């Protein structure tokens, strides 16, 4: 019984084998790393002892493409392209293209304003009856709104800058619509070729056209237009007839309101700035000349003499 229940003990003996020799690949990698570190510190040492001009030459060497280095050509530092070595830079846009894009956007906005004005006129029964006297178009300067005179319906009193009631209604309705764009405006008064005979030589169609343009400006502001939108008010008399074949035609008597595009507005503002700078320089020259004249015209001051000691 005891012999059958006896367990067998198995002992497994593992014989340790010899380790195989490692390869030398790690030595090559370590040698490469040490070589790179030595080269790095050598470059850092050389750069620390180099002058700024030498550093610029080294940087230009690494920037220069192989083709330029071999055959010569423009340096990378003197090129405006963001692509090393040249090539077409699509991030650069010519000045004409930029200007044309800006002009296109500006013209589109003015066309929207034109449609808005036409909608206001058609929706207002009072303005709609005066539609034949309202000319709206796009010019090289911007959106032009012309309110022309009629033989049966004048805009102003005869030979006067007093605004007729219907003209006042038109201007006061147009004024708030002009605030929808930040563009500034100019106003110009026009007359026909009929000489102004009610006044003296000091008052003519030039003064009359300017006064009518200024009266129109007051009506626009009275209707709600921002006063700062006005950039220029002028009178041109009968120099710019609408009907060139008949200088006495009543349609030549008109008020022109131009909502300036950005290019025309910038040009006028730059002209005003350059003119003011020239005026300041002229005033400074006058002040300097007057001070010089005052300095030369002053009598020489007497110098007190003390008696000599005995």
Can you put this structure into words, describing what you see?
The protein has 310 residues and is α+β, with helices and mostly antiparallel strands. The protein has a domain of 171 residues: 2-Layer Sandwich (60s Ribosomal Protein L30, Chain: A). Helix content is 46%, strand content 10%. It contains 8 helices and 5 strands, in the order H-H-H-H-H-E-E-H-E-H-E-E-H. It has a 5-stranded mixed beta sheet with strand order 1-2-5-3-4. Strand 3, helix 7 and strand 4 form a beta-alpha-beta unit. The longest helix has 36 residues.
Oligomeric state? single chain
Could you say which overall geometry the principal axes of the C-alpha atoms support? elongated
Number of helices: 8
CATH architectural group of the domain at 97-267: 2-Layer Sandwich
The level 1 CATH classification of the domain at 97-267 is: Alpha Beta
Mean pLDDT: 79
Strand order of the largest sheet: 1-2-5-3-4
Distance linking N and C termini? 163 Å
Strand content: 5-15%
Number of strands: 5
Quick tags:
8 helices, 310 residues, 5-stranded mixed β-sheet, elongated, 60s Ribosomal Protein L30, Chain: A
């Amino acid at each position: 019984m005891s012999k059958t229940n006896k367990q067998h003990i198995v002992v497994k003996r593992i014989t340790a084998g010899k380790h195989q020799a490692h390869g030398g690949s790690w030595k090559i990698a370590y040698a490469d790393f040490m070589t790179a570190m030595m080269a790095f510190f050598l470059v850092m040492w050389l750069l620390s002892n180099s002058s700024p001009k030498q550093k610029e030459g080294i940087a230009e060497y690494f920037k220069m493409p192989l083709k330029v280095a071999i055959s010569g050509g423009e340096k990378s530092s003197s090129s405006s392209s963001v692509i090393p070595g040249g090539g077409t830079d699509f991030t650069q846009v010519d000045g004409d293209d930029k200007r044309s894009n800006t002009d296109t956007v500006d013209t589109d906005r003015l066309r929207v304003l034109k449609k808005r004005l036409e909608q206001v006129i058609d929706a207002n029964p009072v303005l709609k009856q005066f539609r034949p006297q309202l000319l709206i178009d796009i010019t090289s300067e911007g959106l032009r709104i012309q309110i022309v005179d009629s033989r049966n319906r004048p805009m102003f009193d005869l030979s006067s800058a007093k605004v007729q009631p219907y003209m006042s209604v038109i201007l006061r309705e147009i004024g708030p619509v002009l605030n929808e764009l930040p563009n500034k405006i100019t106003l110009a008064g026009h007359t026909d070729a009929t000489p102004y005979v009610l006044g003296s030589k000091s008052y003519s169609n030039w003064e009359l056209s300017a006064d009518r343009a200024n009266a129109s400006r007051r009506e626009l502001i009275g209707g709600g237009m921002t006063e700062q939108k006005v950039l220029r008010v002028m009178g041109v008399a009968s120099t710019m007839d609408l009907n060139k074949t008949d200088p006495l035609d009543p349609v030549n008597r008109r008020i022109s309101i131009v909502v300036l595009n950005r290019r025309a507005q910038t040009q006028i503002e730059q002209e005003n700035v350059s003119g003011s700078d020239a005026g300041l320089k002229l005033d400074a020259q006058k002040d300097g000349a007057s001070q010089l004249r005052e300095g030369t015209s002053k009598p020489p001051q007497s110098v007190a003499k003390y008696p000599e000691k005995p």
